[in-house]
Write a structure and sequence with these properties.
Number of helices: 2
Largest sheet: 4 strands, mixed
Strand order of the largest sheet: 1-4-3-2
Shape: globular
Length: 138
């Protein structure tokens, strides 16, 4: 089980606008502090934390943040409409398009995905595999 994912950012305010454009719709709650942004799923009293958490932070070594080549973080949406909606919202808040929402021939028939880069260049995927929606071949 992955406990958390961290991406670096040089401009925390800009990163906050980008990630807040879609993470709250996926039920992530934001906690801000001097160490950066912490997005976590809610925990009911007596319940174990729901993982993974997602952190956006300045680099620890003080050098400029950079995106990992081949690294990507994927967030699951409820359905295909939400993938489209959140992809557009993230683009409007400073993201760049890496692949419009849709089906991809190399993935399963229900894997609907849109790709973005955050303002720092980190690659983000928003996807849905909802079995109650039409698939690529339906």
């Amino acid at each position: 089980m992955i406990a958390y994912v961290t991406v670096g950012a040089d401009d925390i305010a800009r990163a906050k606008r980008f990630y807040t454009a879609f993470l709250p719709a996926l039920n992530y709650r934001l906690k801000e502090g001097p160490e950066g942004l912490s997005y976590a799923l809610p925990v009911e009293p007596g319940q174990s934390p729901v993982l993974p958490d997602f952190y956006v932070k300045p680099t620890f070594d003080g050098r400029p943040a950079s995106a990992g080549n081949g690294a990507m973080v994927a967030f699951e949406a409820r359905n295909q409409a939400q993938v489209r909606e959140l992809h557009a919202a993230a683009l409007a808040e400073g993201g760049s398009d890496e692949g419009q929402p849709g089906f991809r021939p190399s993935y399963g028939p229900r894997f609907y995905v849109g790709y973005l880069r955050d303002p720092q260049g980190n690659k983000i995927a928003l996807f849905s595999c909802n079995p109650n929606e039409p698939g690529r071949d339906d």
